[in-house]
Write a structure and sequence with these properties.
Blueprint: H1 4-16, E1 25-29, H2 36-39, E2 41-47, E3 65-71, E4 74-80, H3 91-94, H4 96-103, E5 108-111, E6 116-117, E7 128-135, H5 163-176, E8 181-187, H6 196-204, E9 209-211, H7 215-223, E10 227-228
Helix pairs in contact: 1-4
Amino acid sequence: MKSAYETVMDAAAFIREKTLETPRIGLLTGTGLGHLSDAADAHVAIPTQTIPRFPVSTVESHEGRFVFGVMNGVELLVMHGRVHLYEGYSPEQVVFPIRLMRALGVDTLILTNAAGGLNLSFQTGDIMVIRDHINLAGANPLAGPNENRWGERFPNMVNAYDIKLRQLTADYGEKLGFGIREGVYVGLRGPSLETPAENRFLRTIGADAVGFSTVLEVIAAVHTGMKVL
């Protein structure tokens, strides 16, 4: 049986047969933001179900595509859709796309999601930049033998969400005329939504927003040395 590293490299080799594009920026679109992949001037679009060992999303609106293209003059790789623990996938499968992006040359990762607001000062539709996270998903993609070719055994998560990228986002939001929130995201396993008591608990431990994605992907990205927004 092939290792997780070998399966990722097999998928990377498959994609290299389709394109030699090597964007350094990756964008993973969350619920409701899949149209961002259509905003890119695409050079190549690869259905993820054709990529060897790639997990296929079962969630409506999470169409699986890897799009190599240009957005606002910047070369990037856009992934339309993601998979989640609540679909029955393992942590290793959930972060497979992140590790594949890294194998293809991506060193800066932008993750988006639709989250539930916990901070009572937030309004529906606010944009929040994640400053830090709390992992309550009951899983970690780094459990088990460490793959040294990806990263060290105990990656430092102190600056998991890159400070410079967060500041750049805040500055650009101000330039465009709208404020951007910043806060702590708590990742749960799902799929059932939170009870009122759970929401009170999550606020008490310092969470500003809650969702069922992102946290495992960030851990894997940091492990491989990627900057994350």
